[in-house]
Description:
Four copies of one chain form a homotetramer.
Chain A: E1 5-6, E2 11-16, E3 22-28, H1 38-48, E4 65-67, E5 71-72, E6 75-76, E7 81-86, H2 108-115, H3 132-150, E8 153-161, E9 164-165, H4 188-203, E10 210-217, H5 231-239, E11 245-250, H6 253-256, H7 261-264, E12 268-271, E13 274-277, E14 285-286, E15 289-290, E16 295-301, E17 311-315, E18 320-324, H8 339-356
Antiparallel strand pairs in A: 1-2, 2-3, 3-7, 4-7, 5-6, 8-9, 8-10, 10-16, 11-16, 12-13, 14-15, 17-18
Helix pairs in contact in A: 1-3, 3-8, 5-8
Amino acid sequence: MSSSSIGQRFVFTSFGESHGKCIGATVDGCPAGLEIGERDIQTMLDLRKPGQSIITTQRKEDDKVEILSGTYKGHTTGAPITMIIWNKDQHSKDYDNLTLKPRPGHSDYPAFVKYNGFNDIRGGGRFSGRLTATFVMAGAIARKLLSKTLGIETFSYTCQVGSVKMKEHATMKMKNSVYSNEVRCPDPKIASKMRETILAARRRGDSIGGIVESLTVNLPVGLGEPIFGSLESDLSKALFSIPAVKGVEFGSGFHGSTLHGSENNDEFLIKNGKIQTKTNNAGGILGGISTGMPIVLRVAFKPASSIAKKQQTIDLHTKKSVSLVVQGRHDPCVVPRAPPVVDSLVSVVLADHAIRAGFIPPVIR
Amino acid sequence: MSSSSIGQRFVFTSFGESHGKCIGATVDGCPAGLEIGERDIQTMLDLRKPGQSIITTQRKEDDKVEILSGTYKGHTTGAPITMIIWNKDQHSKDYDNLTLKPRPGHSDYPAFVKYNGFNDIRGGGRFSGRLTATFVMAGAIARKLLSKTLGIETFSYTCQVGSVKMKEHATMKMKNSVYSNEVRCPDPKIASKMRETILAARRRGDSIGGIVESLTVNLPVGLGEPIFGSLESDLSKALFSIPAVKGVEFGSGFHGSTLHGSENNDEFLIKNGKIQTKTNNAGGILGGISTGMPIVLRVAFKPASSIAKKQQTIDLHTKKSVSLVVQGRHDPCVVPRAPPVVDSLVSVVLADHAIRAGFIPPVIR
Amino acid sequence: MSSSSIGQRFVFTSFGESHGKCIGATVDGCPAGLEIGERDIQTMLDLRKPGQSIITTQRKEDDKVEILSGTYKGHTTGAPITMIIWNKDQHSKDYDNLTLKPRPGHSDYPAFVKYNGFNDIRGGGRFSGRLTATFVMAGAIARKLLSKTLGIETFSYTCQVGSVKMKEHATMKMKNSVYSNEVRCPDPKIASKMRETILAARRRGDSIGGIVESLTVNLPVGLGEPIFGSLESDLSKALFSIPAVKGVEFGSGFHGSTLHGSENNDEFLIKNGKIQTKTNNAGGILGGISTGMPIVLRVAFKPASSIAKKQQTIDLHTKKSVSLVVQGRHDPCVVPRAPPVVDSLVSVVLADHAIRAGFIPPVIR
Amino acid sequence: MSSSSIGQRFVFTSFGESHGKCIGATVDGCPAGLEIGERDIQTMLDLRKPGQSIITTQRKEDDKVEILSGTYKGHTTGAPITMIIWNKDQHSKDYDNLTLKPRPGHSDYPAFVKYNGFNDIRGGGRFSGRLTATFVMAGAIARKLLSKTLGIETFSYTCQVGSVKMKEHATMKMKNSVYSNEVRCPDPKIASKMRETILAARRRGDSIGGIVESLTVNLPVGLGEPIFGSLESDLSKALFSIPAVKGVEFGSGFHGSTLHGSENNDEFLIKNGKIQTKTNNAGGILGGISTGMPIVLRVAFKPASSIAKKQQTIDLHTKKSVSLVVQGRHDPCVVPRAPPVVDSLVSVVLADHAIRAGFIPPVIR
Lengths: 365, 365, 365, 365
């Protein structure tokens, strides 16, 4: 299987480069009969668009999606759906000196060695965060599929920036307030502090990391397959494909490893006539299978590697130490643009598993 | 692809159930010509064997591996290597009442719904931690392959139990002291405190969680493939298949998300004539590709779900709330048995990627 | 994906060697709840057993199947089903001189080069026709699954041996007479001539080729996926894995390439209230998708390569021409043993596609 | 894995519809450093272009390929290579009455049922022969890769049309004369008779079938993997994805099944200092592995289903029998356009296997 692809029945392939002609996504295995159009995808793409505020990169992109195949009369046909965005606003000159002076924290060095210099380094090429727009294209389809057929809804938000964090999990009620501020945090007070933290980093030519939390509701019991097809396995595989992600946890996660079983186990009870758990430290997944409780996961983003501060690196040609100041327009914090990306990958994985588990049929009638 | 399989070129399939006839592993794609025998696998299996001390389950298993296929005259042949362990010491009666009274924190409930009661529930069936012995069988082969061809070595250890944690990363020097104590922590003082914590939990009929850290050295630059074949993606997919794992992080991980780019970026320098980084917050992986620095990752284990304390659950037949005391012999803390399992999965993933990247040829000459 | 595996949802992996400890099959993805036992598999295995008559090899094998995993209380559990047959009656000495003197028509030479001599050459190792018993193990499960859930039935028979051939296709009525004679041809007169042809070849220390035809009925419309998941693609991939197969055709096949469209097209009509075609030159498949008409395919087997006649080959050590007489007990014609093998692979592929197309659910209730 | 994809390391995905916006191909896994440009692909595409002569469809297509990703400075980068052809000359009206009146011999009926009418039926949609242009895009890359790295060359030609056939196999010398005539037969006299046969069919509003033979030389020993990764398995899987293909055979193929082992076995000898076989009835493949001898295979094409003659079908709405005359411009014989398509798929499969077997490295230096 291609390393640019993910999924078994709902298969998403990502192609394109940051400063090439286009970036694109192909989704194969989406059931026929789903009503979908460019507008559905554009709406979700717009949520991750750069240049929306002073806390993200000033690079402006239209990012207009174009569906090339796989739909007919406004519905999916069962054929592969290929979508592209033509690249426009590239400043490739900014990257001209990077080949031989690898940027700390970037893929420049290992990529140069791996591809012997043949990789497209403009704008980071395949390693650019821009490629996450292809995740969103595929995710928009997955999301609509899950919503229309099973009522599954997923929403992600910024729960931490640097040391500023939300004290509690968000609730479904907060869903609509995520996009009411530019950091994508549903708590407006915390959002304000996060914004300060990002601006402070920016002023110093620095960057700052953070955490995105994702919540998915209305899952049926039974998605996920032991052993290597566990929901945690497939979700983490997808999420670690986002550049800058260095940690993924489910439910009580790393904190849970400090607890006792009697504290961490979720007791079963009947609520509203349904079997549920009193707490949800499992994050909605037991034995790799969905329990019907909300899936809760957190994704740790390292601070963006591109900073305006002077750093030490090696000139690969002379093998001498040199200093480097990374040029170009960059996000001081990538986290505020990440929630739609996380939503997308979660949806792609769940759509695949919902088809595999027989919850979504090959044709939507 | 089967959900019981992982890998593209070095493909590992796990089969068997906790209390069935046997548990087994098939490895396909291992290069021909690797010297391997049952002893190589047994040695590694013995490191995770239960019943070794008072802090793990008292269930005694011989766990003698038998190679059924794929070797000839003491070497791999290029054919699939199937290995099994015959199950012996099962106490299936202990689990008789579990079908209809799902244990909190276990897969009982979602598995029952998913398989409509057809799954083998004895000893947890497919969901049992016992299946991790199959990971070790495959891992022993992967480890030897990596060691013989590339000199790659991986070692894991317990770095946290409950709130007791090591202050610093282990170094390669500590490698040999990992197995000198029963908690598998290379720092003997911390090990002693961890042991206390586990015994305290045990006395209360409770369990406790913890964290395993893994270190891999001597990697060439260039393992891993963007986008969905990133090392982080494939390592996390493998690691989340271990029952009880709820979090995985690389390098500075979750802590890194609180940092600034200027703190977290690893500057390049020349050391011993080789390009290295000053720090290793990336955990040896940039852009999903190995940098040549040690791969550092941490795996969070929740406290074992099986505890002797009374818990509330639902009788699936009557749909009424009932209380439950889990019978059987269980680990108060699974972490001390986890390091060889983590080593194994890391090795399996790296062997696959080393073959994919052309570092290991189809035949070892 | 492992080269020893086939299928996407119903995944069959074959392992073992002709003269190793055992041969085995793992089926992953079989829906839970299918009633299955060793007897179901043994019954089908017995149909391909060698030593049944004077026209096949005199090698006697018990070939008793043992299910190692994946069933519980007589039903499938949704977990991988591993089955093995312990090898017994090997005469490995017969093959001692083969390593360096490759047999004409055998895999000896390319396998020796590919694996640098590490492959298990005893009895042909992985390349032995004996491995087709693993196809039958998996096929027996697939067949029962298809029969129980959809009423699909497949049957194959010898339609040609050397130049002796049936004049017409077999009909479903003939199904029961296939196994009434040792050549597996439903026409007793033709069967008798085929037997003569095989015995004549045998007397001369020679072998003879032949053709197996396969008929599958009761398929729903809609199995198969364009483009590379066409039924013809997946069936041929499976069938060409049988040693000695050198040709596969569907419906009018090679003969159809001499016809005009007006002769070869199958016109649609209503029969018994169902849409059918007047003729079935398409062999039940249009555009790679099942039409509901019987799937008709033919598989060409070359004459067995192992013959008692003296042949020329090369001593790989001296690089000199030498003559060779292949020792051991061999089938003068493999075709009579092939029908259950063809049935098995057809069933495995159709089971996979029936699951993929949503015709068989993850659990049989 | 997507059903629109083929290959494990050199992965080709086909997308697009006959009368949609475009048709396209994505190749992932092509080694970095291969010099490639649109001209390389265009040259091969032009060989299958319709409208070249009176014996093929009069539909005119420019079929200009555009590379969207995966190359940089004229070389492959290791990233997925996406290529498209914008569709132009569609006459979609011609197909308006097809939905409810399925054409005999076409995918209309099973596709309608499978997709519940949601599939794009214009011009055959996904089932159109036009999609074979995407095979050629991928094939052009594979061909250049094989040629540059290993000197492997493949060439295909029309060896039979209706009952007119070449008496002998083509030789490498004839390679250049294949495209000197419009039927793509290297024997000019036979070519002339084939042309007559096609024109005669055309005059009657009918079509005619034929056979393409493919020859590949300079293969190393050792491509192909037992059991389901045999060269025959993977080549046939690819070739049966060509619409209209109903048979595939290797070496002596179906004819070989009438022979004795002593006739069909290829004896080994030393020629030009290399181990070769005296004859090549195996078609260059033993045990699924390349022997170093030329790969010889034949592909049977049924007569094109679209004919101008009146045929009987069923109105899917009224369930009544109706007569149908297929409108539109069609090939009276698809065979003359098939050789570059066969070449392409053979090259795609061999490129994949050459990478898997370690004969082509991840980077071409």
